[in-house]
């Protein structure tokens, strides 16, 4: 993967920063992309759908029509980037666009370290006919889950067929990042916002995001 598509997204984020910081542009982008995907999986426009749609429109109104068009273009480029190779693309974009800093206090693990961890920790053989269940209690941008999927793929296993993921994160941006990336990779997953240790009784529906693969929308 030469990273040209990723670099183009980073450049667009930096060019859009002015009235809003690169951090805000990135955060609005991933939130709007996550909501667009999530609402496309729900035929019933219930209260949760309506709240998410309002949030999407509120974020869109912050930006000019030209800027919204760029945000949509960035989502298309993100999908193209995953065609070039499997990695934590959003985590890399976040860091390379200057969003990671001591001020925000958020950094993402380099993907090669996530990949090394997955290679060491995952079983050598996986039966595609049986669920390979992963529970990620602090998903960040989803890098460890993507690494697990890549290890399966490199070993000749169809991760889209066997992986079943439950991912949580306290930070909404991490939830959105994880959800977008797992959705684009066709991974069956529930991604939830909350404290894994404190929320033992479950999550309300507005804090649960179901990927299109888990919703049965992919072949």
Describe, in plain words, how this protein is organized in 3D.
The protein is an alpha/beta fold and 219 residues long. Helix content is 53%, strand content 10%. It has 9 helices and 4 strands. It has helices at residues 4-16, 22-40, 47-61, 65-84, 89-96, 111-121, 143-154, 159-162, 172-184, and strands at residues 132-136, 163-169, 188-193, 208-210. Strand 2, helix 9 (172-184) and strand 3 (188-193) form a beta-alpha-beta unit. Helix 6 crosses helix 7 (143-154). The mean pLDDT is 91.
Q: Whole-number radius of gyration? A: 17 Å
- The total count of helices amounts to 9
Basic shape: globular
Total E-strand runs: 4
Strand percentage = 5-15%
Structural class: alpha/beta
Characterize the biggest β-sheet. 4 strands, mixed
- Uncertain ranges: none
Task: Report the helical percentage.
Answer: 40-55%
Measure the end-to-end span. Answer: 26 Å
Query: What is the residue-averaged pLDDT?
Result: 91
Q: Give helix and strand order, one letter per element, not per position.
A: HHHHHHEHHEHEE
Strand order of the largest sheet: 1-2-3-4
